[in-house]
Write a structure and sequence with these properties.
The protein is mainly α. The chain has 15 helices and no strands. It has one domain: Growth Hormone, Chain: A. 84% of the residues lie in helices and 0% in strands. α2 packs parallel to α4, α2 runs antiparallel to α14 and α11 runs antiparallel to α15. It is globular.
Length: 380
């Protein structure tokens, strides 16, 4: 799935000519995918709890096959929005179901490592897709990655139909309702504080993936830069997941958050001329690697708190939050780039992150104050 999506992810921004499509127009097309994923993710999660996980994987890949091929047929903006929205539905089916399956088969003592392996598969697929897209657009045409991606998705659908096995069997009545699952998740500060951070991170990711290919030196060089970054992210995920199993989820999540803040401060300092690129490069490298600690630890923590009879709904909520970030990212990024330029984009990212951190602290502080007050009353 990620191999095929990586091909399109990199190709779509350069497939649309700058003369005909503004940055904001590209952002609108890019946002159609996560809009659909946001709207459909929670519903797919509920269906995965009630009807099983397996079917949504091969159905999602089959829908994706059609959508990926359809990109080559027309470049009208309304048509591309509709096609990308269809791909978002396919993504919701696959991501929610596969994440739920990983949660089903993992345990609290190994979940960090196994979520890291899951991230490795996701990001490794993206990396190969991005590199393949750069090569195909160089040696062939800008439609070639779409054909290749459609063929990959079709093969994935066939493989999933015959080889993927169901991981849970339960009656419709045994699954928790969405309201019950949300109440359990949001009722605990350790899970509730994750969602603002995830939203901020995915906003940055949406900006980078949408506009990075348009502002890179060339499609081939940019694909190698993207691919190298994604490869580094992929290979570190099992390690950070294992460390979260050994030393705790909260420590690894905090390492990731602080590293993201350091990364933005360094990037802004370079853009303002306070650091030369080469003198700032070691800081970019250290903070960049540190950022990668957050995803596997946060996913493992979410899996730890997911109720057994509401795991699909839990992953649907997660899909909703990350998709919302990738809606905001392209739209906000396109607006800021067109109006204020690239330096302002980094400032806006830093403000978003600081706001998310402040909200998370308020959530955690509110629960701590409530718990402390309750304990005092019980003692009295």
């Amino acid at each position: 799935m990620r191999f095929s999506f990586g091909l399109v992810l990199f190709t779509l921004p350069i497939y649309l000519p700058r003369q005909e499509f503004s940055n904001f127009a590209v952002g609108v097309i890019a946002a159609a995918y996560p809009v659909t994923e946001t709207l459909c993710g929670p519903a797919i999660g509920v269906l995965a709890d009630r009807l099983g996980r397996r079917r949504w994987i091969y159905l999602g890949l089959a829908i994706s096959t059609v959508a990926l091929f359809a990109f080559t047929l027309n470049t009208d903006i309304r048509y591309l929005v509709a096609v990308h929205a269809l791909q978002g539905l396919a993504a919701a089916m696959i991501i929610v179901s596969t994440l739920t399956m990983v949660t089903d088969v993992s345990t609290a003592t190994t979940r960090g490592r196994e979520m890291g392996v899951y991230d490795f598969a996701n990001l490794g697929g993206y990396m190969v897709g991005i590199l393949a897209a750069g090569i195909l657009t160089r040696i062939s045409s800008r439609t070639a990655p779409f054909y290749f991606a459609a063929a990959l998705a079709a093969l994935g659908a066939i493989f999933a139909y015959f080889r993927v096995k169901e991981t849970i069997w339960q009656s419709k009545r045994s699954a928790l309702s969405p309201f019950q699952t949300l109440k359990l998740l949001l009722g605990h500060s350790r899970t509730a504080v994750m969602f603002p951070i995830w939203l901020a991170i995915m906003t940055f990711v949406g900006m980078t993936l949408t506009f990075g290919p348009r502002f890179g030196p060339s499609p081939l060089i940019t694909s190698f830069l993207f691919g190298g970054g994604v490869l580094l992210l992929a290979v570190t995920q099992p390690l950070f997941g294992y460390l979260s199993d050994k030393y705790g989820r909260d420590k690894l999540m905090m390492l990731g958050i602080l590293s993201i803040i350091g990364l933005f401060f360094t990037a802004i300092s370079i853009l303002r001329g306070r650091f030369g690129f080469w003198s700032g490069l070691p800081f970019l490298a250290v903070f960049g690697i540190g950022c990668f600690a957050f995803p596997p630890a946060a996913l493992a923590l979410l899996g730890d708190f997911a109720p057994r009879r509401g795991r699909g709904t839990t992953m649907g909520v997660y899909s909703f939050v990350i998709s919302l970030g990738t809606i905001i990212g392209p739209l906000l990024g396109g607006y800021v780039l067109d109006r204020y330029g690239i330096r302002s984009l980094f400032y806006s990212c830093l403000l978003i992150l600081m706001g998310a951190l402040a909200l998370s602290i308020l959530i955690a502080g509110g629960e701590y104050a409530f718990t402390t007050s309750l304990r005092r009353r019980e003692k009295a």
